[in-house]
Design brief:
Length: 302
């Protein structure tokens, strides 16, 4: 059986500590019960809950440490470097800045990342494949932007060549009180000419490498039919001539559009039948490539 009797809580605590118990503060209610033995005594001990309190404190500290360290946080975002992936359809000179001196050359078939453009969009700055981290500049119309990439006109402006300004130094002024040098009538001795300068180097050998036509294709699905060619040269292709024979014959000059040469054949007003198209590329030195040939059956379907 349990008995309830009013007692003063602080007087009980004072009695345990050996303090003065003459206190008249409001009382609490204490439950008197028969003393427990065995497992019941351990369960009702005032210190039996302390180990559980320690576990709660350790769990709280561990959770706070995980939250501060960011282990449970979201991963940081990764930003993509801006640029436009492009294709080099022919060998071109690459310069140190827009319109500046030549630094290297980009070979036919190279893929480069365009990262800047000139103020007039005539030049494009690309990552140098031979020196990672540096930028070289090529004519924008010498690059073909890969499908799905942003146009070169959306790249940031850069590549301006530095301007060097030379200033003339004025002659030193003599200190005050000292007379200036008077002009003399005596002729000054001629300076020693020194050794003769070395002879100029011989001129570089003329260009003897002919260009080549890597691809010649004819699209006969539309009217007019479209003929396209891809040509390259160690210096540069200046023209591509197209000729045809079969049910009709003739020739014409192809036009450079982007990175390929293009010609539109008026198939609507031409007879239907088998035809052979031949393309020959030339460079500035007059070297001509081997002929590239495409055989098709010409018919206007529209």
């Amino acid at each position: 059986m349990l008995w309830l009797r009013p007692v003063n809580l602080e007087r009980c605590l004072a009695r345990r500590r050996g303090m003065n118990v003459n206190d008249t503060r409001p009382s609490a209610v204490v439950v008197d019960a028969a003393p427990a033995t065995g497992a019941a005594a351990k369960a009702t001990s005032p210190l039996a809950w302390l180990p559980y309190l320690g576990l709660v404190i350790v769990a709280g500290i561990g959770g706070a440490a995980l939250g501060v360290s960011g282990v449970l946080g979201s991963p940081s975002a990764v930003s993509a470097a801006p640029g436009s992936s492009t294709f080099v359809p022919r060998t071109v000179d690459a310069r140190v800045c827009a319109g500046g001196p030549v630094a290297t050359s980009l070979q036919f078939g190279t893929h480069v990342l365009a990262v800047q453009r000139s103020d007039d969009s005539e030049w494009a700055g690309v990552r140098n494949p031979a020196a990672v981290g540096s930028t070289v500049w090529v004519l924008a119309d010498a690059l073909v932007v890969d499908e799905g990439q942003p146009p070169l006109a959306e790249l940031p402006v850069g590549g301006t060549c530095p301007v060097v300004v030379a200033s003339a130094e004025s002659a030193p002024t003599p200190p005050a009180g000292e007379p200036a040098d008077e002009p003399s009538d005596e002729a000054e001795p001629a300076p020693n000419p020194g050794p003769a300068p070395p002879p100029p180097p011989p001129p570089p050998p003329s260009d003897t490498t002919p260009p080549s036509v890597q691809q010649l294709g004819v699209n006969v699905n539309g009217c007019p039919a479209v003929i396209q060619a891809v040509a390259s040269d160690n210096v540069g292709v200046t023209q591509v001539t197209l000729s045809w024979s079969g049910v009709a014959s003739g020739s014409g000059a192809m036009t450079l559009v982007g990175g390929s040469w293009r010609f539109e054949y008026d198939s609507a007003n031409a007879p239907e039948g088998a035809m052979t198209f031949t393309a020959v590329a030339r460079d500035a030195a007059g070297n001509a490539s081997a002929a590239a040939v495409a055989n098709v059956y010409m018919v206007c379907l529209s």
